[in-house]
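RECORD TYPE: protein structure
NAME: Kynureninase
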Amino acid sequence: MTDFAKTRAFFDLPEGIIYLDGNSLGPLPSAVPVRLDHVMRLEWGEMVITGWNRAGWIDMPRRVGDRIARLIGAAPGTVVVGDTLSIKVYQALASALDLRPDRRKIVSDSGNFPTDLYMAEGLIRSLDRGHELSLSAPENLEAAIDEDTAALLVTEVDYRTGRRHDMARLIAKAHQKGALVIWDLAHSAGAFPVDVSGLGADFAVGCTYKYLNAGPGAPAFIYVAPELADRVTPALSGWMGHEAPFAFDLDYRAGHGIDRMRVGTPPILQIAALDAALDVWDEVDLADVRAQSVALSERFIAGVEAACPDLTLASPRDPARRGSQVAFRFEHGYAAMQAMIARGVIGDFRAPDIMRFGITPLYVGADEIDRAVGILAEIMATRAWDEPAYHRREAVT
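PREDICTED:
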C-alpha cells in the first residue's frame, strides 16, 4: 500500500500553496537540487568531459528510459529519453508512415493536443507524398480508422477536459485494419497504470515534466515495440542514433533497437533531474495512485457542484472515462483562476472557458481538496474574479 504522507514529503512545495497544476508542470522533488549539485560539481566540475565515460552520461538516455518503461508497461530496452515530445511525435509518425508506404491517411481527433497535429501537418508537407491528416470528433475516432489508415495518432487523455480514450479498443481496431498506433502518454504516464506492451502499442511517446515531475523543459521519451525497433528508419538521423557515433562515418547507419531513436547529444542535467524525480516511484504502486486520484476527483467534483452552481463540469462524469484531472467550464474562467492563484490555489486555464485542476495524490490530499473547494466557492459567491487585474491575460495561461 502506497504511503501518500511519505510521497508528499518527497516534494519541496511552497508554504501555503495548494498545487492543483501537476497535470501541466509537476512540483520540485527535493532530491532534484541535490542530484543536480552532485552532477554539476562532482561530475561536470571535476570530471569535465571524462564524465561521458566515468559518470556514465552516454548511457543515461537508455538507463533512465528503463525506469520509465516500468511505469508504462514496457520491457527493458524499449524506451529511450531525450529531445522534446514534439520531436518524438515526429519520429514515431515518420517511422509509422515509412512502414506503411502504400497508405496515405493519418487518423487523429479534434481533441488531440495541437502540437501533435502541427507535427503531423509539417511531416505531410515535407514528405509531399499525398498523405492527409483526417480528424474526427473524439467519440468518432474508432469509426474513422479504415483500410487506408497508415497510422492512428492519439493522445489518451484530452488536455482540456481529461476525457480518456479507450486505448484497448482503438489499438485493436487499428491493428484489425492494418494500421500502426502512436500513443501519446503526456497525460497518462505517472497518472495511472499504462500497459503499452500488453495492449500492443506500436509506438508510445510522452513528456516527463507533468506527472513525472522532472521540471520545465524536461526531456521526452519514446517507446518502440520490440518487433519494430530494428525495422524503423529514423527520419531524424542524428549522430547519437548512429550505429557507431564515435566512428564519425560520413554515411548514416542506424543503431540497434531503441538506440536508433536517439537524435542529438543528450541533455545530461535535465536527464539527471528526471532520474532523481523518478525515485519517488520506487515507493509507489500506480494502482494505488489511480484509486486515490479517483477518490479525490470525486470529492472535488461533488464539492464544486454543491457550492458553485455557475460552474459546469467539462470532464466526463464517469471516473473510468477521465484521467487525473478535472475541468469545469465558466465564462470568466481565466479571471476566476487568477483569483484562485492569488489566494494560493494553483490550477490553470485553457481557452475558451476551461478551468483545469490536476489531482495528483503524491502531494495532494483530502484536506487540500476541501480547502480548494472552499476558496473557489468564496470567489464565486463574492464575484471576486471580477477585479480588473484578474482579467489581464498573461503570456502563459
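COMMENT: The chain has a mean pLDDT of 97.
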